[in-house]
Model the fold of this input.
Amino acid sequence: MPLDTSFPIPVARSVADLRKIVFGWRRAGERVALVPTMGALHAGHLSLSEAARAQANRVVVSIFVNPTQFAPNEDFERYPRNLGSDIEKLARQGFVGLVYAPTAAEMYPNGFSTAIRVAGVSEGLESAARPHFFGGVATVVAKLFMQAQPDVAIFGEKDYQQLLVIRRLVRDLDIPVEIVAAPTLREHDGLAMSSRNAYLTAPERKIAGFLNTVLGEVAAAVAGGKSPSEACNTGRARLLKLGFAAVDYLEVRDADSLDPIEMLNEPARVLAAVRLGGTRLIDNAPVLPKAD
Amino acid sequence: MPLDTSFPIPVARSVADLRKIVFGWRRAGERVALVPTMGALHAGHLSLSEAARAQANRVVVSIFVNPTQFAPNEDFERYPRNLGSDIEKLARQGFVGLVYAPTAAEMYPNGFSTAIRVAGVSEGLESAARPHFFGGVATVVAKLFMQAQPDVAIFGEKDYQQLLVIRRLVRDLDIPVEIVAAPTLREHDGLAMSSRNAYLTAPERKIAGFLNTVLGEVAAAVAGGKSPSEACNTGRARLLKLGFAAVDYLEVRDADSLDPIEMLNEPARVLAAVRLGGTRLIDNAPVLPKAD
Done:
């Protein structure tokens, strides 16, 4: 497949094209960062490529809506896709050197039959509602790492459990990639930026911002000495009263292992998934033990 | 961990030491081959490192008895281990540049929780008796590839299903390693060389050589037009009559996909696992469609 140069940034559609460019950079001694995305780029993604630029002199953004991390009942078909406008946004940043937008056939050719499973941190939370999700994520991210062989890759704290799954994957398989976490970018009312926010109706959008507020309240309560389970019960009731249709989970976990905690001894994280109409939103916030 | 130089070949015990040496070679433009082994080296292994030497100017042999590919009832504890004599054998070859003999803690540190599963070619045959085997193999081989980052790796045709699992793993995850197959080395009576042959008593050893004979008979019968199932029935009866205690499987499969076949249209392979006393032996032979 020839390199697609009809966009303002070169677009590699195949592993061969991707490697030709990236290996050229590496041979020249340049440090390469990869930002894996599913497209539908918003300011949050652009902050990830900014973080990539701070880590490396060459930035590759991959755009691939990965079918294996969607369940049959999920939004794979309607997930927003617009390669042209995604690339324009990246081009405006002025430093992204390559977009890697492989075809599904390039990623999963006939006969594909390998799966990676990360136990532990991948269990519970997101996996309760989406049991195949992290298997799909771990496998596609490992593939992207093998394909591009970047020095460093950037993942957002917005998908906090995913970030920990990727860290575990890289450590367990000794994949030679450094993982850098980037903070969550938020709208003025605190709503974490997400491609799925586009699904929200105007009234839903008004409610959505309170998710971050409640996460902050739970974090403050736990930091102040309240028991995690009590704080989460209060938080769940608050969310439902504020108009969220359902709370898939609202939990305080150890910030590194994601083990459930009963007392605040180590850094912890509040994590939540909620429903608003047909849309599922996730977010998280740090809980830091108070300095006495 | 310091590089162990008390042996006639340097021995890396950690990923860091391994990479220091291998990356130095690669920076100097040298091509690196890896030969993964579980030690207990015999002439068969030495033929793998010979094959490696033909592919690259630097040869690394890894020696690691991988606990995750043994079931609790298998021979992990009694599997033969002798690092000193293994290294002496490699040193006599004169060209092996590094032995990588990681500790179990280096390969599987606390909290390790990632597993790779290759479906398809890994199913049936060896998996019937050893359901966790190929999961353990795929995961440890992926780790060795990530750790050493060789240009090429050598696997013996003796473990034919394993060879196909590794080929599938590398293709599916886009691991940048070339896989080269090396033919099976045999004793004078045709017995495939294997570390497990050491378990055989003298009378068992005499019977063992007939496994290869019968595989050849089955392959010839199928090549001559006999149906695979009929040829295998005859072969199984022959093996039991010759003194093998049990036949775990004796099957003719497609040589690439390992799909069961009913007629010989594409290259095929006869594969078998048999028991002799407490020892399990495997072997395989090619079936080539006759040129008319």
